[in-house]
Amino acid sequence: MKCRMEPFKVRILGCGSALPTLQHFPSSQVVELREKLFMIDCGEGTQIQLRRLRIHFSKIIAVFISHLHGDHCFGLPGMLSTFGMTGRTAPLHIYAPAAFGPLLCQTLEFFCQGLGFEVVFHAVDTTRNKVVYEDRSLTVETIPLQHRIECCGYLFREKPTLPHIRRDMIDFYHISISQINNIKAGADWITPDGNVVPHERLITPAAPPRSYAYCSDTRYIKSLYKLVKGVDTLYHESTYTSEDAKRARLYWHSTSRQAAQVARDAAAGKLLLGHYSARYGNEEKLLEEAREIFPNTYLSQEGKIFDISAAR
């Protein structure tokens, strides 16, 4: 019997780069795990995309900002204001490089007075790989990246869950409710006549924990794969094709081929491309080059939903 996994999804709100186009919104994503929503980056138009994709404003627990280039954070002031107008009361936690703290305070003071909810700022050290958020379901840790300004990605790791006790075994052995959690934790069952029923016969194994890594703007880092080793789904910026590798080096970005190298070396399950340069009419060349190195590669597009599954 296969146990049902709780939803772990990534919704793409925007996957373009700095120069506006009619094809893409700037960077923003929403990660859903066990009915909790987390936003990564918040470019212009993010709140419009939330409306378009029918994502409830009030369900977003935290926003993780990778760096302070406008295409990753200009949407935040408008979104905060809208959250206030829609009656939000729950605190909103914002994780971002330390330099964003004073800017956020000014924004709240000038444009967002009387919000009705608390905005809690958490300064992030982009140079360290460190857990910055934790709850009962998951941890979020920083991934140091190399861009023109301080920048980091974020790695979402689901926490392991207990196995599921089989309903037929509960009925057959008349297992009391008080003992169910003990059996999930590893205990055997002893019948009234003293027979021991091994724990392994009573349960179905828990689904393996899943993980999602978001690697925002960065030049190719040869050792990056070590921090995302074995990740189930990797999003890695792929601003340019290999023909524009010199431009990628100049602006501290990556090509889709380089993104695929990171995914291959990390033994990732799936690669998502994004942060496309406005110079391309479409992204098929980016996809083609990445798949030559890492076949299980996909283009992120606005409105797409990717399930994070531990299929390996």
Structure commentary:
The chain is built from ten helices and 18 strands. The radius of gyration is 22 Å and the shape is globular. The strands form four sheets. Strands 6-5-4-3-2-1-18 form a seven-stranded mixed β-sheet. A seven-stranded mixed β-sheet has the order 7-8-9-14-15-16-17, with helices on one face. It is an alpha/beta fold and 312 residues long. α9 runs parallel beside α10. It folds into two domains: 8-161 and 207-307, Ribonuclease Z/Hydroxyacylglutathione hydrolase-like (Metallo-beta-lactamase, Chain A, 4-Layer Sandwich), CATH 3.60.15.10; 164-204, no CATH class. Its cofactor is Zn(2+). Homodimer. Its EC number is 3.1.26.11. Zinc phosphodiesterase, which displays some tRNA 3'-processing endonuclease activity. Probably involved in tRNA maturation, by removing a 3'-trailer from precursor tRNA.
Q: Compute the average pLDDT.
A: 93
Regions with little confidence, pLDDT below 50 for 5+ residues: none
Any guess at the CATH architecture of the largest domain? 4-Layer Sandwich
Q: Helical amount among residues, as a percent range? A: 10-25%
**CATH level-four homologous superfamily name of the largest domain:** Ribonuclease Z/Hydroxyacylglutathione hydrolase-like
Question: Any idea how many domains?
Answer: 2
The count of strands amounts to: 18
Rounded Rg: 22 Å
Main CATH class of the largest domain: Alpha Beta
| Structural class by secondary-structure content | alpha/beta
Classify the beta-strand content into a percent band.
25-35%
The H/E string reads EEEHEHHEHEEEEEHHEEHEEEHHEHEE
Number of helices: 10
Strand order of the largest sheet: 6-5-4-3-2-1-18
Q: Strand count, sense and closure of the main sheet?
A: 7 strands, mixed
Q: State the separation between the terminal residues, measured CA to CA.
A: 18 Å
The best one-word shape is globular
CATH topology heading of the largest domain = Metallo-beta-lactamase, Chain A
